[in-house]
Design brief:
8-stranded mixed sheet, alpha/beta, single chain
């Protein structure tokens, strides 16, 4: 795996592009406004002295097609615009959170019949979706990286229905500089959604497991 495709160039997408190129990945970065709007961002990432991989801008479809691993990091309301066919057969990382004030109310999320990542999987039926990077601040993706074996190494949670896809994403996260806590299937990804104990805090693996176990559904709070 050498190329990371990123659909969405906001705070999380930018931080992942920086961390991935530092780890030696080539990155193809895209947004909804077109590759010409990413010129300055690409130049800034390329200028980083820690960079080992290359980065270029492209359309969302091109980023999806180019990536050996693809990150979808767009607002939930933009999910219908994510291209489907270029991501077919690929492992897709979904970083989304549901913010009704931004995305509008979604009844199935309001009453917790589904989760954002299950919605992403439904939109991308031929991809293997793994939830990750939704509970960490963008600055921590670049600022809290440490080598394997570091005491109390920062941990990030994943959730997914495909075991091999989760292994791929766990390996990627470890390369970036974090331990991994597997929450189980996509339906358990809510355990680190907004307003839960695991959303935001800098926790090691044991701490994150404990925070995830303490999480409560909105309807129970």
């Amino acid at each position: 795996m050498t190329t990371l495709g990123i659909i969405g160039a906001g705070n999380i997408g930018t931080a992942l592009a920086q961390a991935a190129t530092d780890a030696g990945y080539d990155v193809v970065l895209s947004n909804s406004r077109g590759p010409e709007t990413l010129t300055d961002l690409v130049a800034a990432i390329e200028a980083r002295p820690s960079r080992r991989g290359r980065v270029r801008a492209a359309t969302s479809a091109e980023a999806g097609a180019a990536g050996d691993l693809v990150v979808v990091t767009v607002p939930l309301k933009a999910l219908p615009d994510v291209p489907v066919e270029p991501l077919a057969g690929k492992v897709v990382i979904d970083t989304n959170n549901y913010y009704p004030e931004r995305d509008g109310h979604v009844a199935a999320l309001d009453d917790e019949r589904t989760t954002t990542s299950e919605m992403t999987q439904e939109h991308l039926p031929t991809s293997r979706v793994v939830k990750a990077f939704n509970h960490v601040y963008a600055a921590d993706i670049t600022g809290r990286r440490t080598p394997p074996g570091t005491p109390h190494r920062r941990a990030l949670a994943i959730a997914g229905d495909d075991a091999s896809a989760k292994e791929t994403v766990a390996s990627f996260i470890d390369e970036l500089g974090f331990d991994v806590v597997d929450l189980g299937p996509l339906s358990e990804g809510w355990r680190v959604q907004r307003d839960t104990p695991g959303y935001g805090p800098d926790l090691d693996a044991d701490g994150l497991r404990g925070a995830a176990a303490e999480a409560k559904r909105y309807r129970d709070t």
